[in-house]
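Q: I have 852 residues here and want to know how they pack in 3D. Can you give me a structure?
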Amino acid sequence: MSSTLGAAQVTAGYQAATGPDAADEPDRLARWTDGYRPEPGRPDEYRDADGRPRGAWPRLLERLARLSEPEIMARFVSAERHIRDTGISFRIYGDQREHAWPLGSLPLVIEAAEWRSLSAGLIQRAELMEAVLADVYGPGRLVADGLLPAAVVAGSPEFLRPLQGVSPPGGRWLKLYAADIGRGPDGAWRVLADRTQAPSGLGYALENRMVLGRTFPDVLESLQVERFPAFFQAFREGLASGAARSDPRICLLTSGPYSSTYVEQAALARYLGLMLVEGDDLVMQDGCLHVRTVSGLKRADAVWRRIDGDFLDPLELNPASRLGIPGVIEALRNGSLVMANMPGSGVVESAALSPYLDGIAQRLLGEGLKLKSPPAWWCGDPAGLAHVRDNLDAMTLRPAATPQRGAGRDAILGPQALAAERERVLAAFRDRPFDFVGQDLGPLSTMPAWERTDRGLHLVPRPFALRVFAARTPDGWRVMPGGFCRVSERENVDPIEMRLGIRSADVWILSENPVDVRHLGQQATPRVRRISGHLPSRAADSLFWFGRYVERAEAVIRLTLAHLRSVGDAVVTDISGDTEAPTALRIRALLEEWGATRSADMPTAALAQEALVGREVHGSARAHVISARTNAATLRARLSGEAWRVLADLIDLLSLDAARAFTESQLLGRAERALSHIAALSGLTHENMNRAAGWHFVDLGRRIERAINTSAFTLAFAHDEAGADCLGVLLSLTDSQVTYGARYMQGVALDPVRDMVLLDPYNPRSVAFQAEAIGRHLAELPALSADGIPEPHCRLAARIVAALRSGEAADFDVVGLTRIEDDLERLADTIAGRYFPNGPHALRPEKLAGLA
């Protein structure tokens, strides 16, 4: 058996098969390429039809061969670790699990001269798509003059009638065009599919380059690989062009963290400095689009949408949509909003358009296509149907309209599949022939990939598909010097879309001249500003709950540690001679109440294991950390890489094999290390996050949750009859033993312990300390009323602070503690109602303040 390898697999395969590397450069290169045989008649990037090395590949392989194999493999392992630490991942459509991003171990390399020719064809094609869209939604001359069948346009689900006659703000339907390309049988590049709806892959191309740029900086420099920043700078300027304001607010509209491409969307928002928003974050008012922020409504001038066009406006388009913004089409009509790409632009993705494109190009551009598609025939045309039916055994059959979401390559039937379903296909031709396009697609071209065999590591040809991008900028179309490449791990699987068994590859364009290595933003000196930006309400919600879940995880871990350390405790006798039940029973009861364990009657080790790493319980430490990471996934643009690494390490630490029984000492060590990770995460958020509204909400979440948990601890372990053992556990849970011991020499007593964990403003674990911090955070957050009267959440926080400042330890019996705990829970709900988009009855900012 053989398999195409990613970075970690390459390392393992090399160490297993070849041992220490001692070969010099020529021998190493010969060993890699020995037996490299492309399939006859199938174009290959490395070998031409006569088996000779071609293009830029010899330069790349010769440069890699200067490195020893152990060094190469160590770099690949570093790349895999970086992907894991920074949370670069993807989802397969319909699958809620995240999969680590499968970066391949070799880039696709293209010489500068070939790239110039390809870029010229791509720009021409982008301009053609723009012209077709302007005609389809405008005068309709292409249909009237017989250059384009009306059914190809009107029959497409991507043709959105409410956009008919709309003039795009900024004058352009497309801000970004992409094309999936591969080599045809003659070796020339051909367009397999046009992408104009909401092209994906740009962010993953960026992530691929960032990872390999860290892994092989010397190779990139020596080969003079073209860089991305100038393209992205121009693309951002293109997004802003046409906006009414000189300093426009640009939003990236996502369907949310369960989108299959959410990670790349977040990466693009972070890299380009865009506001990442969902439909619920946006609202139409007075004919303009606004973002709901914790400071009130803020005008949105431009939107880069990453949801399908028909889902954009449930009022005028798809009424079932829960992803869009009601009424947003009106902002496009009145010119107050620039959108990339315009809704309805997906109509030119139709495969049924392909047979007519060359003729349309002659009419609209005055020249034929430079970058052609494979020959195609629309079955809605009688001549096309006859040709497809007569040549069905050699055809690839595609849907005329864009495939259903998630269908992807499964909607395309190649010759083998057609042979097996011939009768069904012929019946479909009789009923709805216009639904199909026949195409001489042929097999995809191949490129080198590593593979492990019994003889060691070798290069083998594997099918690939390349997506290239062109952006509309203020200076015209500009092609990204690279792309998004997918490579199959098997020779008989087409990598048209990302799924298991498909890897991604960086794309290197080798320049003939030294390249500009400046980063994004270095092309021009920006105006100095000290503004924190506006925080969308949804982001504030996620930040708040991120803080709460981290604190919940810490509380469960501390309880579990206290339980493990109290095992074997006897019944305790206090000074008065009374006895109490072992503290372990109280700890078990609290863990069961919090949902960290299904039963308080489990053996000690089993209970501790479930509380720490349980997968079947909602309140385990692992469950809370995963919930924290889920919330953090919506905030990738706001958390540092170090914070992501700590989160990843913490999840690994709490991901024990559920089938294995661990000892109490092993669990104790695991819990102590988990606490250290949480402390590191707390330090990173405290020291690395900008002191803007986002940081306030993270810390608010932690402070409120800590105050609630400390109140619950005090109820359980500082009740009126509590003895020394319970009080000692409470000091341990609140990390206050050292402070208490330094202050009180006589031993533990109820009132001093209550005072320290509840009322001491100098103890960073006390409820009073949390309440004071909450009050300071709320004072820093924006107020939406101008009458000077404190808002409800501020008044409630002030009452809690006053009660703790004026109270005495003896006042906080069961009734007093319960009142404080209830007030804290109500404060959390009041903050949510004021700032977060959590339901139809939430106090929306637009109801409280004017526009900004």
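Q: Anything worth noting?
A: Residues 540-847 form one domain. Residues 7-22, 404-410, 568-580, 839-852 have pLDDT under 50 and may be disordered.
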